[in-house]
Structures are given as structure tokens and as C-alpha cells.
Amino acid sequence: MINRIAARIETNVSDLYVKQHALVVVGRYPPFPRPKYARYGNGYENFNKRIHVQTDAFEPYRQTEILNFFLGREVLRRPTPLQREKALASIGRRQPWPSSDAVYAMDDVILVLLEPFDANVARTWTTEQ
Fold first, then answer.
1. Spatial distance between the Cα atoms of 8 and 111, rounded to a whole number of angstroms
2. I want to staple 79 with a disulfide (CB 3.0 to 4.6 A). Which of 21, 84, 86, 87 is the partner?
3. What sign for the dihedral angle of Cα 102, 103, 104, 106?
4. 119 found inside a domain
């Protein structure tokens, strides 16, 4: 799903590769159904019944780095606390992913809305975290 987010950012942000933008991601993406695609093996069948595929690659503290990797260059950076607060205030009635308005740019900030916004939803770490 991260590649789909990267593609949507490329489509919606015309100056993406011209200058750096701060990134604010609100929410988490849906959990990956590991048992459908990964099999137990190598003697780990009873090792806490866990498959060695992690689903937490897109955590709030490293979202900019992961998306920069998928975009192929350093075009995103962490937001300042003020940029993040302004971005959160701009959400309004926008619908979360996969809605067409779930990814948008405001000034030099790109916002990705993965879940409906509320006070407790996860969000990208700022430059001060």
C-alpha cells in the first residue's frame, strides 16, 4: 500500500520533485493479513505462532524516510509542530484513504489521511520528536 500512497502523492503534488515538502500522515494503514500470504516454516511452527513478516514498516516516526525510499529521492521531510497543527486543522470533512481527497498539498505540506481524524489517531512525528 505504501507504493499506492507514493503514486497518489506524485499525482496530486505537481512540484513534488522541485522542492522539499513536509509530510503529515494521519492514521495507520490497515493490518496486513499475514496468514494468507506467509507460511510457517524453518522449525518455527510453535514459536509464539508468529510469522516473520512485520506489518509495522510505516510507523509515524519513519514515514518520511519510507516514502522517500519509494519516491526515489529526498523530497519529503518531517513537519514542524506548527505545520502539523495547520495540516490537521485543514482536514475538515475530507474522507480517508482510498478517497480521492485523502492525499493533498497545502502550502509546502503534503497530508495523507489514512483514517478518520480524531484527537487520538496516530500522526507523523514532527521535527521536535
1. 11
2. 84
3. positive
4. no
Expressed as residue numbers, the domain containing 43 is: 2-113
Residues in the chain: 129
pLDDT tens across 71-101, in order? 999 999 999 999 999 999 999 999 999 999 9
Q: How would you list the strands of the sheet with 21-26, edge to edge?
A: 76-77, 21-26, 109-113, 103-106
- pLDDT digits 0-9 by tens, 100-124: 999 999 999 999 999 999 989 999 9
Q: Report yes or no on 36 lying in a domain.
A: yes
Whether residue 123 is contained in a domain is answered as no
